[in-house]
Amino acid sequence: MASMEYDLLIRAGRVFCVETGLDGPGSVAIAGDRIVASGPDVSGSAGETLDFPDGLALPGLVDMHAHPAPGDWKYGIDPDVHILPRGSTTILSQGDSGAAEWPEYRRGIIDGSRTRVRSAISPALHGDSTQAPPYADLSDMDVDACVAAIEDGDDIWGVSVNVSVVCCGDTDPKEVMRRTLAVAEATARPILFGIRRDPFDWPLADQLELLRPGDVLTYCFNGQKPSMVEGGRVVEAAWEARKRGVLFDVGHGMMSMDFGVAEAAIADGFLPDTISTDIYKRHVGLSPTHDLPRTISKFMASGMPENAAFERVTAAPARVLGLEGEVGTLATGACADVAVLRWNEDAAPLVDSSGQTRPGGCWEPALTVRGGEIIGG
Questions:
Q1: pLDDT of residue 359
Q2: What is residue 197's predicted lDDT score, i.e. its pLDDT?
Q3: Cα(64)–Cα(46) distance, rounded to whole angstroms?
Q4: SS (H, E, C) the chain
Q5: What's the pTM value of the predicted model, to 2 decimals?
Q6: Residue 43, domain member (yes or no)
Q7: Which domain holds residue 370?
Q8: 327 φ, ψ to 5°?
């Protein structure tokens, strides 16, 4: 390869990219906000060269379920402070904004963040901008207003709905879902769907039957009823939904990562399509830090092959979000988003939502590059 002048050259003991087939020692070369070369044979000088002989260089991580929003909103955190420095350069907001706050949200969070933010908009007018259950008042579920917000620009990936009692209050969750489907059908957008578990009054199979190809079920490895795992095996309704093209996302959060469920599902051959954190304000200040590298590590400890876990935080969610070729890859011409991780064998134990622990070390962020600019490391 001919020598070139780069703005930034990152050398790592391992460079991994599903899209380009890279998996071994190498470098990532960046000019401006683009990747111009990657792999074992990159040569040339650079304005700045960073060496990570014990590091793993990946495309910038993609988190399919997070809560970037103003700090006075129910779940909101500043993505540039709490997410971007931890390796995640692209994130999807899960229902933070509704149509009423959408102009403010787009201006302040999407346009105002260095983190690349896409939205799964709430079908409720005010989303989670207040402390109230978003669907408690059905008059706030204005289908026409939500459709108009989606048609106003290209930053809205889809519609987010969580039919739990926490979000619905006394409102019939089936009516909430009916209106959400009306928005999704009118705009040809996918749904990010949160299962109803409390109270256990709507069978999982009946909920899954409503989901369409390309829709994403989140909280898939929650240990509460109705669970995707019964008797140590994944339930038939989940397999049937996957055959129809429904996708399954982790959405770890405070309640939705159970080692027993994850281990049983993985052993049964049912891997999540995407791994995500569901990071929100209750996670701020926790030690160890809740982030995507630690969440990846929990799935490796649950039996998921390492490379499969890496794919589910890079290329796979990039495809789901329609951003393939731009993010989730180290291919020439892609946006220069890079995460460098280091393996810490002596890291704090991995803990699931119920307090179960697993040993085995943890991936931790060492460097984040967003659009060619060094963010942390």
A1: 85
A2: 83
A3: 33
A4: CCCCEEEEEEEEEEEEECCCCEEEEEEEEEECCEEEEEECCCCCEEEEEEEEEEEEEEECEEEEEECECCCCCCCCECHHHHCHHHCEEEEEEECCCCCCCHHHHHHHHHCCCCCEEEEEECCCCCCCCCCCCCCCCHHHCCHHHHHHHHCCCCCEEEEEEECCHHHHCCCCHHHHHHHHHHHHHHHCCCEEEECCCCCCCCCHHHHHHCCCCCCEEECCECCCCCCCEECCEECHHHHHHHHHCCEEECCCCCCCECHHHHHHHHHCCCCCCECCCCECHHHCCCCCCCCHHHHHHHHHHCCCCHHHHHHCCCHHHHHHCCCECCECCCCCCCECCEEEEEEECCCCCEECCCCCEECCCEEEEEEEEECCEEEEC
A5: 0.97
A6: yes
A7: 5-59+332-344+356-376
A8: -130, 170
Judge if 145 and 200 occupy the same domain. Answer: yes
Let me know how long the chain is.
Answer: 377
Domain count for the chain: 2
Exposure letters 341-352 (e unless 16+ CB within 10 A, then b): bbeeeebeebeb
Q: What is the pLDDT of residue 1?
A: 44
Partners of residue 363 on adjacent β-strands: 343
CA distance 92 to 25: 31
CA distances from 228 to 231, 257, 276 (A): 10, 12, 17
- Quick check: bond before 226 cis, omega within 30? yes
Let me know whether 54 and 73 are in one domain: no
Quote the crossing angle between the two packed helices 173-187 and 143-150, to the nearest 10°.
40
Closest-CA residue to 275 (of 220, 352, 228): 220
Stretches where the chain sits below pLDDT 70 are: 1-4, 377
Do 193 and 336 reside in the same domain of the chain? no
Same domain, 284 and 226: yes
Same domain, 54 and 67: no
